[in-house]
């Protein structure tokens, strides 16, 4: 870098960041400004040249202290202004120590464990030169055909918001400049999970009410509550204006309503894809659409590098738009402290896959397992069992447990189910194994051996589900059944007359109706990461009492989709009556409901007290109850609080999750559980999309799932409470999705 640092106040960490940005911006050429807005994947001769010319602001998929330091040295020491690169990576559920997939961790209903997992991911990835993760994925998903349901926290905005906050806090810690933390990037902004038909990248067409009450809340939680400092714009068309060109969501909501001052990065080539969407005729037009809507950094479309400077010179784009985008990017680079600490410290690598990190992954895996069924208390099994058959294509698979987006995870680090069981049972126990069939395929060659070893065993553990690449991006399925001949394998083993425990490894709800009706015990194990086998064995043999609960509804068949617990009543709520809202060929209820999960013990709920105090915005509703462990072993209960606004000016869901607490109780132990509701939590968007609480009766439901309601109560609200949401005034003139 040229002149001495002394005269460059942007390099002075003692100065306020605003002044450092002003000083640096003033010195930058147009090309250098546009350079900060360009991100590329991996290194190449060309991109190295661009770095040297000051034309790159960020890379993704460059990992390791050596690789990041090499290219960073060029940016910092060989360019005119020495602006450091920011390195991003998809650190979705772990860097090298791979944790359960996000949908699994959401099943823990334990924000603490989620935060811990994110902080370990930040610790490991930051030691390898990473400054920024493209996570958390906070897209609400109500269509399990959509493969990316695996990457989020399920169907509910309240649970999704709690998980979003926890992940951002885990990634970013309390100080963005802390070398052990990384910038978060809630994605994919916005409503990507509402893709028609559950088909990835497909059109989204939803009402502004649904957008604001279902899909925006987890982003608001991540950004406004937890302070996420970047956001990723989505691929999808949103009501006619693609999310990566949607000024209303990217600028008017994100910045106008929420005051977000970080930067927005596009999804991979989502700027370039505006041409495919048909709202831009050329890459240059796409670049202009995106940057004026509020996308500050172009991931891998190379549209900004090729077009923005020319558009400014031709007076087709104001330099003010470019300056504002660069200002936001520089703000985060200064906040991250990478001007002061541009290089990774190779000496920090020992944090990767440390013993405590792996133990945390085991703990997260244990807490993510959901016991779906346990007829006759077949589980837990005795470790001294004399003979056990471990069957299925995923029983000894070390790839599937890593799930999608497994970052730097190594299958060699995975403990398979077979390995977990072998290390758990007594030395005298005979453990037999047979795959039986592939995850996908039409061969039943392995069935006979599977049946033979099942007949020769006291219990058969059948591990079935999906491969890790059958969910995640570009992995939508038109069916929710077990792929291939796996259900036939379960039936064949079941037909051998042995007791069967079915272990599911999957990235989405599966319509396992036959198993639910015939198999005595079923564990939902999702993709649990490197410690999958040990966690599953701990649950099967009782060293861990499962406490997970479903963050997403399991349909009986794909024909029921969309099906979610917080549905509206309709004018003809489903009932045995013919002329009501249901199917004639299937019960209208789900296979397993949102919030469902069993335990090896049982809990009793009592003493519900509901008290409304205060008025207006100062009103508070206190809800208290007691939960007792009435079984014989310690266990966790997830106490769930649901609310219904019985009569309102718009139709309201039959119930909405408004609180939850996962508590551990010893046998006989009683705990008081308290919830406090604010007027905001009672509010909704009225006919004018104004946020209000209306007078009337609210029904309180507390239970062990959205269907297993144990106590009910109610309270009255006497007055109308309005919330000043600035955006609402503007939207009266122009809906969120009307043309600019
Ligand atoms: C992908 C995904 C996004 C990811 C990005 C970078 O296409 O949509 O979730 O963060 O590209 O890999």
Task: Describe the protein in words.
This protein is an alpha/beta fold and 740 residues long. Helix content is 29%, strand content 18%. It starts with 16 loop residues before the first helix and ends in a 7-residue tail after the last helix. The model is unreliable at 729-740 (pLDDT under 50). Alpha-D-glucopyranose is lined by residues 60, 90, 134, 187, 267-268, 473.
Tell me the radius of gyration.
27 Å
> CATH topology of one domain, which one?
Rossmann fold
- Level-1 CATH class name of one domain: Alpha Beta
Spans with pLDDT under 50 lasting ≥5 residues? 729-740
CATH homology superfamily of one domain:
Glycoside hydrolase family 3 C-terminal domain
Topology, number of strands: 25
Helix content: 25-40%
| Ligand roster | alpha-D-glucopyranose
